[in-house]
Write a structure and sequence with these properties.
disordered N terminus, mainly beta, five-stranded antiparallel beta sheet
Length: about 350
């Protein structure tokens, strides 16, 4: 339950808004609007919503209401598109990755990813487009899933070191560089790899650091990165802590990062694979949206919980803002008015809410 005020900790000021494609969302705030990019089988479908000033709370204000989509919905593809500067990357059902504008123009095939695997994007050095994806490579040990990186129109380079694999990948900008966070989930252990990338005429890979090693993990589990403008960053990974408990590991990321960084746990009432998590930074504060079970009983309803990361690296829960029996694939963005936009997918479709938390 929320730790600091129950239902008053956050309030939904708009939504839930039903989205036109049943797909995980990629969110980007641009000026006075937020773009919601959905994956229509390799083609981006973008909807924009105004980020107007947040109205003051009052007893006479009607509660936010569900907004049904206008017109029919399409099934989409269950892999989120990735955003990088003014470009969008969307994988289709074959694993081919398309690069387009936000409006879907100039479609070009730029990579071949593992079918059904996540892709990642980030702006590198201000105006270079970085794409991260997973691909299979045959080694002496058999076929291995690895992380790859493509910058602009350069030939892709392998992010994964020899002997290491990757089952999910996240990219996030940090000053003039990009930080790559790769999860390597195996039957015996799960390793969290962090690697910086800079651009000096071409992409330069920094040292690969294993910042956290946990127990066996689900290959669908993805981490999240929180990299504020100053101070340490954080890598978040929902995973079993031991045979009897499950939680979110918050791993500190200094600059430069170190092997075996400090970790703080925030526990869940039960296990959940995969357990979606997303972050957004607003006015120096790191916000987290995570999907967790509501209670310890098997098959418990899933809830979307909002919280923040304290300077000590602990997760401070704020409120539960949505619930569903099959909630997955959360995304989060912060607008200039201090409001948060959270998107998720459940059995009924794809949804978006605007939330204000104190």
């Amino acid at each position: 339950m929320p730790s600091d005020g129950g239902a008053t900790a956050c309030r939904v000021v708009r939504g839930p808004i039903e989205l036109p494609v049943r797909s995980p969302a990629a969110l980007a705030v641009r000026g006075d609007s937020v773009d919601v990019v959905l994956n229509d089988d390799g083609k981006p479908r973008t909807s924009s919503f105004a980020t107007t000033p947040v109205p003051s709370a009052s007893a006479s204000m009607p509660p936010a209401a569900r907004e049904p989509v206008e017109g029919p919905t399409s099934p989409g593809y269950p892999v989120a598109c990735a955003l990088s500067a003014d470009r969008v990357f969307c994988a289709d059902r074959t694993g081919a990755v398309h690069r387009t504008t936000r409006e879907g123009g100039g479609d070009r095939l730029v990579a071949s990813s593992r079918t059904g695997s996540r892709i990642a994007g980030a702006a590198l050095g201000g105006n270079h487009t970085a794409l991260g994806y997973l691909a299979s490579r045959q080694t002496s040990e058999g076929w291995v899933s690895e992380a790859w990186l493509a910058v602009d129109d350069e030939a892709p380079v392998r992010l994964s070191e020899d002997g290491a694999g990757a089952t999910s990948l996240v990219l996030a900008p940090r000053k003039a560089s990009v930080v790559a966070l790769a999860v390597d989930a195996r039957a015996a252990l799960t390793a969290l790899h962090v690697r910086p990338v800079t651009f000096e005429g071409h992409a330069l890979l920094g040292e690969d650091s294993v910042v956290f090693v946990g127990g066996p993990g689900d290959h669908r589990t993805a981490g999240a990165l929180a990299l504020p403008p100053s101070g340490p960053g954080w890598a978040l990974l929902p995973i079993a802590k031991d045979m009897a408990s499950f939680g979110m590991a918050l791993v500190r990321l200094d600059e430069p990062v170190h092997v075996d960084e400090p970790v703080v746990w925030s526990m869940y009432p039960n296990g959940l694979d995969p357990a979606a998590v997303a972050t957004a930074t607003e006015a120096g504060r790191i916000w987290v949206a995570r999907v967790r079970p509501q209670g310890p009983e098997p098959g418990s309803t899933r809830v979307l919980e909002m919280g923040s990361i304290t300077p000590e690296g602990t997760f401070a829960a704020r409120d539960v803002v949505a619930s569903s029996s099959k909630m997955t694939d959360v995304a989060l963005a912060a607008d200039a008015h201090g409001a948060l936009w959270a998107a998720w997918v459940d059995a009924a479709g794809s949804w978006l809410e605007r939330v204000v938390c104190r």
